[in-house]
Design a protein that fits this description.
The protein is mainly α and about 190 residues long. The chain has a domain of about 100 residues: Cytochrome c-like domain (Cytochrome Bc1 Complex, Chain D, domain 2). The chain contains eight helices and two strands. Strands 1-2 form a two-stranded antiparallel ribbon. Strand 1 and strand 2 form a beta hairpin. The chain is elongated. It starts with a helix and ends in a 17-residue tail after the last helix. About 15% of the residues are buried. The model has no long low-confidence stretch (mean pLDDT about 90).
Length: about 190
């Protein structure tokens, strides 16, 4: 059986061994952004980036795609082809992010409006039906009036997909028989 002095010696050795392994990682040497440093000749702790360095995923060399504008004017063409998959993705994103305010067909009668929040404009007014697609992209990206920016929540391509779906909604609410391809007209039923 251990004597009390032996037990104390073993405990003390364990504490010392543990303390010897302790690394002060929380207190490791570091610099805050733009903090001065005497280590480098220029006195700055931050090192300059090599020439032509671009952060991964941030090149953004297509202003039409990333801003919806070219030379400060809203673009009137989509920056990539609008396919069925793009429209379906736009419908999905629209239903998630836009219907609470804009409603299911873009009339501006969403659930939050029914609960007393500010009514957004209908997408079916002549002014918005004639607006370039870049306008919708810009509003989704930067917000407008009481609508906040959705740039942090909705990726760039999804914003464009939503714009494509808004155009489809606008067409669906103002389509004529001439807009239906002749081969699809029999599916509409008798005139």
């Amino acid at each position: 059986m251990f004597q009390p002095s032996w037990l104390a010696t073993i405990l003390l050795a364990g504490v010392l061994a543990t303390a010897a392994c302790y690394q002060k990682m929380a207190e490791s040497p570091r610099y805050d952004p733009l903090e001065p440093s005497s280590f480098f000749p220029d006195g700055s702790s931050a090192r300059p980036l090599p020439t032509d360095t671009v952060a991964r995923g941030h090149l953004r060399d297509d202003p039409a795609l990333f801003t919806g504008k070219v030379n400060g004017a809203d673009v009137d063409q989509f920056p990539f082809p609008v396919t069925r998959d793009v429209l379906l993705r736009g419908q999905e994103r629209f239903n998630i992010f836009c219907t609470p305010c804009h409603g299911w067909v873009g009339n501006g009668d969403g659930m939050v409006v029914q609960r007393g929040f500010t009514r957004p404009p209908s997408f079916h007014t002549d002014q918005l039906r004639q607006a370039p697609v870049g306008h919708f992209f810009d509003v989704i990206t930067n917000g407008f009036g009481s609508m906040p920016s959705y740039a942090a929540q909705i990726p760039v391509r999804d914003r464009w997909a939503i714009v494509a779906y808004i155009r489809a909604l606008q067409l669906s609410q103002h389509a004529t028989l001439d807009d239906v391809p002749p081969e699809a007209r029999p599916q509409l039923g008798p005139p």
